[in-house]
Structure formats: structure tokens, C-alpha cells
Amino acid sequence: MQFLKKNLLFLLGAISLLLGSIGIFLPVMPTVPFFLLSSACFSCASPKVHALLMKNHYFATYVNNYRHQTGIPAHVKKRSIGLLWASLLLSMVLASHTIATIVLLLVGIGVTWHLLSLKTC
User: Fold this and answer.
1) Could you read off the pLDDT tens digit of each residue along the chain, which spans 121 residues?
2) pTM of structure
3) 16 and 54: one domain?
4) N or C: more exposed end of the chain, with fewer CB within 10 A?
């Protein structure tokens, strides 16, 4: 039973790490929650992989900034908001439906507000 639990946690950690990595490039997909989930899963399933994750400058930065509540770097906020609105505007043009445009605008406003409300380090 312990073997199955560790393997499932490892698989969940790997999937969430992949999704978090995708979220770096897709602004409507969260990044930090997936990295936090990966960290938690790997800490139980494989301490070696967890240590590797926490030694990685890029991934560990997200996890440590959240754990220590230091905030998000300003350049990450700017890039995230820029990519968010670029992808939303492209989606609005491609969808060309009023309802879709309204929904995308509301999502954009909500995500932008959330990003701006986070502490900047």
C-alpha cells in the first residue's frame, strides 16, 4: 500500500510540475499552485526529487517566495499581465462573439486585479 501511495504522489507531483511549467507561458493557467503541489507531493514521495526541485533556481523561487510571503518580482508581474492581455485580446479577435469577449474581459480584469494585489518583492 505504501508503494502505491508513493507512486501516486510521485505521478501527481510530476503532472503538477508539468502543468506549472506550462503555466509559465500561458497566463490564464496558474503556476505557483502547481509548483506548491509538486513540492508537497515530492516531499512525501521522493525526498531526492524534492531536494532537486528545491535546488532548481527557477522552480524553487516560486515555492520559496510563496512560503516566505516575500511576493512576486515586478518583472514577473509585468510579463504576466502583458502575456495575459495579449492572449486574451487574440482570443477575443478569434472568437468574435460578444459574450465571449465579455467573459474574457472579466477574466482579464479579475486576474490582473489578483496579480496587482499580490505583494511585490
Assistant:
1) 788 889 999 999 999 999 988 888 876 677 878 888 899 899 999 889 989 888 988 788 878 887 787 877 788 788 878 888 888 898 899 988 899 899 999 989 998 898 888 888 7
2) 0.63
3) yes
4) N
